[in-house]
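lol so apparently i was supposed to do this last week
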Amino acid sequence: MITLQTIEALRQQVSQWRKEGYRIALVPTMGNLHTGHLQLVDRARQLADRVVVSIFVNPMQFGQGEDFDSYPRTLEEDSRKLEQHHTDLLFAPTVAEVYPRPQAEQTVVKVPGLSNILCGQTRPGHFAGVATVVCKLFNMVLPDVAVFGEKDFQQLLVIRRMVEDLQIPVEIVGMATVREADGLAMSSRNGYLTPEQRAKAPVIYRLLTETAEKLQAGERDYKSLEKLACGRLENAGLRPDYFQIRRARDLQVPENGEGELVMLAAAYLGGARLIDNKTVTIK
Ligand code: PAF
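anyway here it is w/ pantoate bound
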């Protein structure tokens, strides 16, 4: 595995691979890799001849008072894991490499509509930070395909919309959330939980599953279902940010009826803000 820190060296390597006719996949990450990330890498391996993984804790997607400084940085361990999963190139740039100018002067990619609801409401500017850095990474690597996890459901929709709107020639592949045995979605932020908090955390997925069952059984009072789930999160010792039932394609409030819905949840537990989601098809 080659490890590079500069855009120039990355471009040289990738253009060499292109000349050789290789198809290139990118897996963007912020590091502290767990099985969920490694499954994205394995999928990328199946989809392309050369796999590039980026590790970059992107300051632009963290708000004031959020966990940018404490976000776990475990490059050596990550690098070993990526080697074991046959990554060809690890791109680990510095902040100055990605953002040579001060943030106030940085060109921003905004995806309106999808970015200011749900997580975007609580974390203003977050999705502009995500869209900007992912757009930059696409321009740096010029991948044929990029793989993202569905745990960040809203993020995945923002990225798909950005690619569509800006006509970026890359295929976006989403992959199912990888869970611990008790249902908790794998996340680097699970590491912030104490053992006691960790034992409470699976309630989020339990509520998503129970609510899906109720929807499938014909319940359509979305507001009551959401309220009930928030109350149950509170009773379990979490502080819910939201529990919402939305249309899966655009995250708008569903009109009564059918189609593909998604339940999205975000809740604070100790020092962690946990998110999860589950799609359900209503016939
Ligand atoms: O999902 C993440 O880890 C990040 O939001 C991403 C897509 C790597 C952009 O920084």
